Amino acid sequence: CVQVYHKKQWYQRRVRGRILDRYGAYKDLHTGVGDGPNDKTLEDRFFEEEVKILSLAFMDSFHLGVFFAFVKLKEQENRNIVWIAECIAQKNKSKVENYIPIF
Questions:
Q1: Number of Cα atoms under 13 Å in the Cβ half of residue 70
Q2: pLDDT (tens digit, 9 = 90+) per residue, 79-88?
Q3: With DSSP H G I counted as helix, E B as strand and the rest as coil, what are the percentages for the chain, rounded to 5?
Q4: What is this structure's pTM?
């Protein structure tokens, strides 16, 4: 059973390495991802990248992308509020700081 687990883990690392070598833009997102209690998940890294890209929409003017970015950033703000509320409800205040900062 342990040998099968290690074989599966080795295979996942190998496939992940090949994919990340081919798509370099996602390689940076995958660094720093861990399974520890205070580590960022891959989903968190994607949300952080999305916030960074959406906040760049406000640097230019006279285009409709600003409205889309505003709505998407509001959705992220709602996710942050739900995250904080869930942490408080579950009495897990140590993870309250793991929200995705918007600006």
A1: 7
A2: 999 999 999 9
A3: 75, 0, 25
A4: 0.70
